[in-house]
C-alpha cells in the first residue's frame, strides 16, 4: 500500500497531476481542494494517497490533508458511491461544510454536488452521520491546532500536510493580517509570510 508520496510536481491538469518521485512519475487524481493548495509546477510537494484497484484500472488518489483522505475513504463505504463521486464531493465542498450538511440532515445542499442525486444525498446523510465527527477532527494535531475552526482549521491541516510543524502552522495562520477569507486565501497568505520570514 502506498500511503504518501513526496516529489516534484511535473504537471497539473485537474483532476490529474504527475508527481516525480526518485525518477518515477506517478499519475495521481486529486480533488480540487488539494489542487488549491499545491505549489507551482516544478516545486516539491508531499501528498497522502489512496490506491484503488478495479478490473480495468489501478488508480492512485492524492490528498493534501488526512481529513480529506479520511472523508474520501468513508465516502467509498456508502452504497452507490464510487471514487468518482467521492472525488466530486471533495471538489465541491470542504470537509467542514460536508460535515455540517450531514449533521443538519441537509440532503438538498448535497444534491448540488456533481454526480450526487437525491437518493445518494439521502444515503450520505444517513450513512455518514456517525463518521463525520471523526473525519472533521482529523488533521488537528496537538497544541494550538484544535482552536482553529472553519477556514483557519482547513488551512492549518493543509500546512501540516505540506510539512510544517503544528506550532509553526498555527503561528503562520495567526500572523495573517485580517485572518478572514477563504481557505485558499489564508494558505496563500500564510505561505507568503513563511517565505518572507525565511528570506
Report what the structure shows:
There is one protein chain. The chain is α+β, with helices and mostly antiparallel strands and 199 residues long. The chain contains ten helices and five strands, in the order βββαββααααααααα. Helix 8 (150-161) packs across helix 10 (183-198) and helix 9 (166-174) packs across helix 10. The chain has a five-stranded mixed beta barrel. Helix content is 46%, strand content 19%. It has helices spanning 32-35, 66-75, 83-92, 95-103, 107-110, 118-128, 132-137, 150-161, 166-174, 183-198, and strands spanning 4-13, 16-21, 24-29, 44-53, 58-63. It folds into three domains: 4-63, Nucleic acid-binding proteins (OB fold (Dihydrolipoamide Acetyltransferase, E2P), Beta Barrel), CATH 2.40.50.140; 66-136, DNA polymerase, domain 1; 141-198, Ubiquitin-associated (UBA) domain (Helicase, Ruva Protein, domain 3), CATH 1.10.8. The protein is globular. Mean pLDDT is 84; it is low at 138-147.
Task: Give short descriptive properties of this protein.
globular, 5-stranded mixed β-barrel, single chain, OB fold (Dihydrolipoamide Acetyltransferase, E2P), DNA polymerase, domain 1, Helicase, Ruva Protein, domain 3, alpha+beta, 199 residues
In short:
This protein is α+β, with helices and mostly antiparallel strands and 199 residues long.
Amino acid at each position: 500500500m502506498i500511503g504518501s508520496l513526496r516529489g516534484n510536481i511535473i504537471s497539473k491538469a485537474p483532476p490529474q497531476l504527475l508527481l516525480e518521485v526518485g525518477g518515477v512519475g506517478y499519475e495521481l487524481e486529486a480533488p480540487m481542494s488539494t489542487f488549491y493548495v499545491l505549489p507551482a509546477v516544478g516545486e516539491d510537494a508531499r501528498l497522502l494517497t489512496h490506491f484503488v484497484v478495479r478490473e480495468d484500472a489501478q488508480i492512485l488518489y492524492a490528498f493534501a490533508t488526512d481529513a480529506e483522505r479520511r472523508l474520501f475513504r468513508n465516502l467509498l463505504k456508502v452504497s452507490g458511491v464510487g471514487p468518482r463521486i467521492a472525488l466530486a464531493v471533495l471538489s465541491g465542498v470542504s470537509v467542514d461544510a460536508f460535515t455540517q450538511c450531514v449533521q443538519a440532515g441537509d440532503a438538498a445542499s448535497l444534491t448540488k454536488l456533481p454526480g450526487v442525486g437525491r437518493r445518494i444525498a439521502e444515503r450520505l446523510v444517513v450513512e455518514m452521520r456517525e463518521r463525520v465527527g471523526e473525519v472533521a477532527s482529523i488533521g488537528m494535531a496537538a497544541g494550538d491546532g484544535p482552536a482553529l475552526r472553519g477556514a483557519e482549521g482547513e488551512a492549518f491541516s493543509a500546512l501540516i500536510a505540506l510539512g510544517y510543524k503544528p506550532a509553526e502552522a498555527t503561528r503562520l495562520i495567526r500572523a495573517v493580517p485580517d485572518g478572514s477569507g477563504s481557505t485558499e486565501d489564508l494558505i496563500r497568505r500564510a505561505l507568503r509570510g513563511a517565505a518572507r520570514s525565511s528570506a
